[in-house]
Amino acid sequence: MCPGSFDPVTNGHVDAISRAAALYDELVVAVLVNPGKAGLFDVAERMALIGEAVSGLANVTVDSFDGLLVDWCRSHDVPVIVKGLRAVGDFEYELQMAQMNRELAGIETVFLPTAPHVGHLSSSLVKQIARFDGDVSGLVPPRVNDRLVQITGGRP
Ligand code: PNS
Q1: For the whole prediction, is pTM greater than 0.90?
Q2: Catalytic pick among 5, 46, 83, 123
Q3: Dihedrals φ, ψ of 143, to 5°?
Q4: Low-confidence stretches of the chain (pLDDT beneath 70)
Q5: Are the beta carbons of 8 and 37 closer than 8 angstroms?
Q6: In terms of Cα–Cα distance, which of 109, 136, 132 is closest to 123?
Q7: Distance from residue 45's CA to the centre of ligand 1 (Å)
């Protein structure tokens, strides 16, 4: 499973999901709550936007969970968490979560290094740029761009 806040999904997420989907028979992308982040999109819309962005990947489904990641994995009998890793800045927190999830439930985390052309993308930066009417159309799937333009009143 590929967990995250996905608020909203970016081209970086889509890259990681596509590459994870090529490694496993089935992949579930799960929207989970990150207590450290306030959300712009509600969970239902985050799921819909992911679903649209990965609709071409036959072995990918989308789910959500309001609880511990390891509890979702246990109840779905999912043995592996896959996460994209951008740069050294991600590493400390991601390593900590991976070690904690393994200690809590014996669930392994596999890190996929992001492709260089999306390594600088983050949902937070995308939202910040959109809020100041910057053009994020090259950074996110088309429907996400449309919604950000609607929400922020930015330019098309
Ligand atoms: O996209 P993000 O914000 O980096 O994803 C972080 C996320 C949502 C995967 C993480 O916050 C998480 O697992 N949340 C669910 C609650 C949980 O299990 N917390 C303990 C993590 S060790």
Answers
A1: yes
A2: 123
A3: -65, -35
A4: 154-156
A5: no
A6: 136
A7: 18
